[in-house]
Amino acid sequence: MDSSTYRSLSIVEAGRLLRSGELTSEELTLSALAFCAETNPKLHAFITIAEGKALFDARKADNELRAGIDRGPLHGIPYGVKDVFDTAGIRTTCHSKIMMENVPSEDSVVVSRLAQAGGVLLGKLATDEFAFGGPTEDLPFPFPLNPWNADHMTGGSSSGSAVAVSSGILRVAIGTDTGGSIRGPAALCGLVGLKPTYGRVSTRGSYPLAYSMDHCGPLAATVEEAAIALQVLAGFDPLDHASADEPAGDYAKELNAGVAGLRIGVPRAFFEKAFGVSQEALEGIRRTEEALRGAGAIVEDISLPDYPLFSNSGRVILTAEAFAVHEANLKARPSDYSLLAMQRIMLGASLTAADYIQALRLRRELARAVNKTFDRYDLILTACSLAPAPRLDSMPDPLTAPSVIQAYPFSLSGHPAMSVPIGLSTEGLPLSVQIVGPYFGEARVLRAGKTVEKLSVWKLPTLEIH
After folding, report:
1. Helix/strand/coil (H/E/C) assignment for every residue in 38-89
2. Judging by beta carbons within 10 Å of its beta carbon (0-12, 13-18, 19+), is residue 234 exposed, middle or buried?
3. Which of 247, 371, 383, 418 is most exposed, with the fewest beta carbons within 10 Å of its own?
4. Residue 181 annotated in active site
C-alpha cells in the first residue's frame, strides 16, 4: 500500500480492511513510517520515531486479530502522542534540554489505555517547551511547520500532534490542553481538536503545566475519529486526584443524530470585535449558525462575562502553577530553558498569593456563569481561532500580545470544547468554529460537531508536502 492510499483511509475504513484480511497493521504501519521518513525532515512533527516499538505493536495487533482477539476500533491503528506523555523505555523530553535523558519506566495512563486498545505507537510528537515556550529557535529540536503553508503558524502547544495528523502521517494523535493547546493547533491546521471535561481523561503520567487546568484529548482528521479515540481515553483513574468518577458515554452512538431541536447559544461579544478578528472568520461562524438553523437547531445570542476576565484569570492561574512546577529547575538549571519558556514561567515568581487566590475566586464565578448557560441552552457555538494561521514572520510578541486563539474560558471552567474545521480562507488556510457543552456532555458536542462537519462539507485533503 502506498502512502497516498494509506492517508485516504479513515480509522473505520482501515479497521474494516484489517478485519477482512485485506490489510495488515504491519503494512499500515510501514506505510506510515515511510511517509513519516519522507515528511518529518520537512515539517518536524516528531521528536522521536519509535520504529521498533511500532512494528512490534503492529505485528502483535495482527497476531491478535488473526486469533480472533479484537480490542476495538483502534486495534492495529498507528497513533502518536505529544512528547509530554510518559512512554516506558522511550524518552519523554517535553521538547526541553532539561529532559533530554528522561526515559520513563512506565507508560502514562493515556498511553497505557491506547496500548490496551491495540493501538500502534508510532512515536513522540513535538511541542512547545514544557507545553509553554514556543515556537522558538533555541529548542533542542526544530519546531513543527504548518502543512498547509510552512510560512504560517501551527499554534501551540500540541503542534507536533496537529502537524502529524494534518500532513497525513496519522489519523489521530493525543495532545494536552491547558489554555487551548489542543483546540488552537487543530483550528490552525484544519483538524478536529477535542478538550474533554476536566477530569474526564486521566493526566497521570503526563508532565504538568498547570494542575488545575490540564486536560488530555485527541486531535483527529474527523469528528468520528475523535470520538473513537475519546472512547478509549475516557474513564476514572483512582490514582489521579483530578480524575472524575463519572461513567464514560458511548461517544459514537449518536454522532449522526443531527441537531434538530437543540438550543445553541452564541456569545457574540467574545469574538465579534476582538483584537485581530478577521472578516473571514466572522463570516465562517455566521455561515455555521445559518447551517445549524437550517438543520433544525435554535441558535440565539447569549451573554457571558467579558472575555478578558476569563483570559486574565486563566493566565494568572496557569503562570502561578507553572512556576510551582518548575521552580526547582529554574534555580538549578536556568540556562537549559529556552528564553521564551523561562520568561513565561518566571512571570509566576512575581505573582503573590493574593493574586492567585483572587484569580481562583474569579474563576469560580466565571465557571458558574458558563455552567448556568446550560440551564437554557444545550450547546455554545463560538470562535476558536479569530483568524487563519498567522505568518511566522508576523508573529506578535508572545509575552504581551493577545492570542489569535480564544480557548481560555473553557480551559478555565473545565467544560468540554471542540474545534471543528469549516472551510478555507481565500489564502487556502483552515477556518474553524468551537463547540462547547455541559460538563460530561462530550457526546452532545461530538454530535453537533459531526453535523457541522457534514454541513460544511469538510474533509481533510491529502496535502502536497514540499
Report:
1. HHHHHHCCEEEECHHHHHHHHHHHHHHHHCCCCCCCCCCCEEEEECCECECC
2. buried
3. 247
4. yes
Average pLDDT over residues 149-157: 96
Alpha carbon of residue 212 to chain centroid: 17
d(C-alpha 167, C-alpha 144), whole Å = 11
Mean pLDDT of 425-444: 98
pLDDT tens sequence across 207-257: 999 999 999 999 999 999 999 999 999 999 999 999 999 999 899 999 999
Q: What is the pLDDT of residues 381-397, one digit of tens each?
A: 999 999 999 999 886 66
3, 31 contact by CB (below 8 A): yes
Catalytic, out of 31, 96, 166, 181 = 181
Catalytic residue among 10, 25, 82, 158: 82
Instruction: Evaluate whether 219 touches 175 at the Cβ level (below 8 Å).
Output: yes
Could you tell me which residues are beta bridge partners of residue 90?
87
Among candidates 79, 82, 113, which has minimal Cα distance to 11? 79
- The C-alpha angle with vertex 150 and arms to 145 and 156, in degrees rounded to 5, equals 35
**Residue 398 pLDDT class (50, 70, 90 cuts):** low
* Residue keyed to cell 462537519: 453
Tell me how far apart the alpha carbons of residues 54 and 123 are, in angstroms, rounded to a whole number. Answer: 8
pLDDT tens column, 109-152: 999 999 999 999 999 999 999 999 888 999 999 999 999 999 99
In this structure, which CATH number among 3.40.50.1820, 3.20.80.10, 3.90.1300.10, 3.40.50.720 belongs to the domain 3-455?
3.90.1300.10
pLDDT digits (tens, 9 = 90+) for 359-381: 999 999 999 999 999 999 999 99
As a whole number of angstroms, the distance between CA 262 and CA 264 comes to 6
User: Which member of 108, 112, 157, 411 is catalytic?
Assistant: 157
Pairing of strands 172-177, 192-195: unpaired
Does the active-site annotation cover 450?
no
- Write the pLDDT tens digit of every residue in 267-316: 999 999 999 999 999 999 999 999 999 999 999 999 999 999 999 999 99
pTM: 0.97
Give the 3-state secondary structure of residue 222: coil
Joined together, the cell numbers standing for residue 103 give 526515559
219 phi/psi in degrees, rounded to 5: -115, 125
Does residue 355 sit in helix, strand or coil?
Answer: helix
Q: What is the mean pLDDT of residues 160-171?
A: 98
